[in-house]
């Protein structure tokens, strides 16, 4: 029986658990710091907290951080990596990933997403439902491309960037580390690191 441990009993976590079941994982268990006050999350049990997962990760065939927040997800991913946890990625059967693209460990690709030729997606990333990452894009670690967001060709995305739902990024744009692109934004110019941009065309909130 294939056993999967998910760290993070969140809304995103439920989506990942459901996705994992569709991908053949037979027993799925959550770890979350709400335990033991909460013992279940949707259809799945919560069996321990984050510290207990670090000591029990060898009991599982796969481990994944199922937290939407980029910085928190990356921090736990690094801890599990340092502890030699069997980190895995999960890709929905309906997602389209080119054989010439690359996907880092600990990443999730949701239904109807697409990652095209010569694109690279880092570790602990989320390419959410219906999002597209076009040819030659380079996504660093811990990036979240939200539902329905679209990256045109050769976009470079720094570590920890969160691209909001329905956002569109023009080709050849560079987005700096830990920036946030608001939902529905249309990005036509480079985005500096740790900057939040919104609107059409996208402008900094500062």
From TrEMBL:
Protein name: Acetyltransferase
Active site feature: 135
PROSITE patterns tied to this protein: HEXAPEP_TRANSFERASES (PS00101)
Coiled coil stretches, renumbered: none
Positions of substrate binding: 10-12, 32-33, 68
Amino acids binding acetyl-CoA: 144
Ranges of residues in domain PglD N-terminal: 3-80
Transferase among keywords: yes
The keyword Transferase appears for this protein: yes
Signal peptide as annotated in the record: none
């Amino acid at each position: 029986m294939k056993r999967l441990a998910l760290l993070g009993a969140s809304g995103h976590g439920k989506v990942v658990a459901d996705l994992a079941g569709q991908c053949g994982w037979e027993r799925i268990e959550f770890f979350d710091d709400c335990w033991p006050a909460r013992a279940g999350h949707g259809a799945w049990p919560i069996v321990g907290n984050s510290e207990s997962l670090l000591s029990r990760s060898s009991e599982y065939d796969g481990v994944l951080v199922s937290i939407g927040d980029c910085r928190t997800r990356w921090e736990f991913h690094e801890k599990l990596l340092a502890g030699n946890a069997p980190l895995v990625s999960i890709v929905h059967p309906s997602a389209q990933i080119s054989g010439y693209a690359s996907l880092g460990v600990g990443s999730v690709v949701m239904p109807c997403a697409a990652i095209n030729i010569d694109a690279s997606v880092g570790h602990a990333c989320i390419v959410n439902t219906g999002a597209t990452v076009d040819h030659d894009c380079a996504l660093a670690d811990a990036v979240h491309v939200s539902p329905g967001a679209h990256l045109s060709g050769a976009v470079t995305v720094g570590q920890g960037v969160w691209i909001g739902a329905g956002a569109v990024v023009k080709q050849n744009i560079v987005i700096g580390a830990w920036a946030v692109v608001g939902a529905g934004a249309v990005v036509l110019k480079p985005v500096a690191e740790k900057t939040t941009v919104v609107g059409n065309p996208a402008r900094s909130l500062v």
